[in-house]
Amino acid sequence: MLNPPQATDGDMTSPQHRLDAFASWFSSSEGFIHPSVELVHSAVEGVHLSIKSSISAPIFSDTCIIRCPHSLTLSALNVIDVAPLFPARDNTTAFPRNLLNEARPQSVAALCLALHWIQRDRSWWAAYLKCLPGPPHVEWDGIGVIDTPLWWPHEERAWIAGTNLERGADALEALWRQEWGSFGTTMVEWGNERGVALTW
What number of other Cβ atoms are within 10 A of residue 76's Cβ? Predict the structure, then answer.
């Protein structure tokens, strides 16, 4: 899947503008990015760190390049009261108790991320969310697309029939569908109470 054409750097929605905004937010929130490197995006490598072209001094092997404090992470732990993750920053913390007690942490984290993406302009993690790749075939205002067989249409999925990739994708989809079967009704009701439309 090809990434969409890149906007110019003067464009407020360009990948580089979004990455610069994220780096500024990250650094002002106690994160650290070494001054000799920068976040950049390319169609081939996606978002990655690169040494600035203006840097001529060497960076030694034991140099800290980037550091992310726990207070900036967005994970399943944000929806339960685990210091120092500041769940108060997360307006989705009141998840149904049975979901928190019974679902896999990966599912809780995925739901937390999805809910923040839906509300991304109001989320404390907005600068981060606007740098994420999105699914193909969906209007998206992040950087690039993430391609996974789970999102492929039936015609594309036929190309991996009988392979290990198909078996892995089928197993993962079955797991997600099983969990949606267990918690979907609860989550739809929970979302409706908060004005958030949740569907499979």
Answer: 21
Q: Which helix (H) or strand (E) holds 192?
A: helix 164-193
Residue 120's φ and ψ, nearest 5 degrees, are -55, -35
Per domain, the residue ranges of the chain are: 1-70, 75-124+148-200
Taking the model in full, what pTM does it have? 0.78
Which residues, 6 or more positions from 89, have their beta carbon under 8 angstroms from its beta carbon? 78, 124
pLDDT along the chain (200 residues), means of 10: 40 85 95 95 89 88 93 79 58 71 85 83 88 77 82 91 95 91 86 81
> Alpha-carbon distance 62 to 105, whole Å?
33
Bridge-based pairing state of the strands 37-42 and 46-51: antiparallel
